[in-house]
Amino acid sequence: MFSNADPRSYLRLGTSYEPLFVVLTGSYLYGLHTKTSDKDYRGVYANTPQSILGLFEEKRSIDIKNGADEDVTFWSIKHFLRMCLNNNPNVIEILFAPDSHFKYLTENPFEVQCIENLRGEKNRFLSPSLITSAISFARNELVEASAGAGVKLNKDLNPEMFYTPLEDKTKASKKLAHVLRLLNRVDQVVHTGTFSPVLTGVVLDRILKVRQGEWNYVQILQEFKRYQSEEQTLIRLAKQHIPDYLKSEAWADKWLIRFNTERFK
Prior knowledge:
By secondary structure, the chain is of the alpha+beta class. It is built from 12 helices and 7 strands.
């Protein structure tokens, strides 16, 4: 799954950035990939003391295009933790990725130990706002899929007009698969207080069919609107499992201070 090349040459990172780990995400993580699927890599790097203490702002992210079929994005450890605390659904899943999709790019024992601790405490980064974020992201995907489905929506997401779409169903199928994937994540968090980004069983079977073009847009729209209308109820249910956000923020702050302090000694 991963390149065996030297991490620094593979990432084309300068000497100011120290890659810590990388995760194979996207369709390969969800179990939705095909022979033509791009590989999406997301990783985290640590900054040198100069980049944190010096004159210039630290670089929060680096986007790299490795050929035609690999997209790579790396975030600074500080920016990554902030996005996790903000429950960005496309970022927080990195902490929940299985070992088979995770690769260390550092050989420093202290850094490895810290990252293992971070992954072990991943549920600390869940908060009720994950429900809101996932529903919001799903809404965006649903709206973007409407053109490929031949549906014109009003501001309340009610169909105003149906027409023959000018583009094929491929893009819409991908967007609608993401809608169902995000709604499944809401279900997992509400009922278990955690989630796995790896799709399995009947959920995987259904989403694969949607990805392959077997879908009814109005049916998925109605399913989404049910989650949207029940958002506050879902948040109340999730609070039974999810840890206190302020305690999680304090824990992440303490973790980062210790991580940087020990590294810079």
